[in-house]
Amino acid sequence: MPLRIDIPAKINLWLEVIRKRSDGYHELSSLMLPVGIYDQVDLELTEEEGIRLACASPGVPSDSGNLAWRAASLFIEEAGYTKGVSVRLDKSIPVGAGMGGGSADAGAVLTGLNRLLPGCVSEYRLHEMAVKLGADVPFFLYCRPALATGIGDCLQPVEGVPRYPLVLIKPPLSVSTRRVYLSLKLTRMESRIKLPSFLARPWDLQNLIENDLESVTLAEYPLLSRIKLWMKEQGALESLMSGSGPTVFGVFRDRSLADGVAALAKREWRDCWVAATEVLGA
Hints:
By secondary structure, the protein is α+β, with helices and mostly antiparallel strands.
């Protein structure tokens, strides 16, 4: 029987880019939150050597171009496993959305194979492998609210985050994360948003919700600014782009309002992917 893992997407409630490191990576401070949009990952050990990956979503590679495939390859090499692995992805997290879909799938593969082959890889080494695959991947080993620092790989679990009702809107755009970071003008040099201030007043979002990458992505895609404004006009407490985009989320006071706004968004923004959901707890 395959092992099935439902892995959630993420949003960045804030994302501060502090500085560029000598190795080319950027130092960040970001509150990463899992949200109720899931990819489904089925894993099975096989007698036939190699990795077989299947996904029905258009444009998703089934070879080493897929981060989940690379996660499986890295794990079986580390574990010394000599047989095969079958991976099936059923995707609900939009591809290229700034919601961590590929990283989520990779994190699910690492977590799942660690369950199927217990004792082969230490938790420390599993985290190291996740970092090697991508800065967001470690978050998906745990899928709980966390303050991410370093390049996004140093995770401090955060309790007390409300289950914010959300509306998510992703236009049919493709944003290069690498190009966004290369185009970013670094002016911050230190984190402005402090975790204790957030936890003291978690609904006072006006001074707490910020994404430095918007300065690049919104300038290139003004549509995202219009979606943000539309969210606020529909009653969102605040609206922000997640990651490097192009998904925009609005935070609402209650779920019924979010559901209603999502229904309206599907009519107003017909070319966009739209969902209502909420932040998940620890």
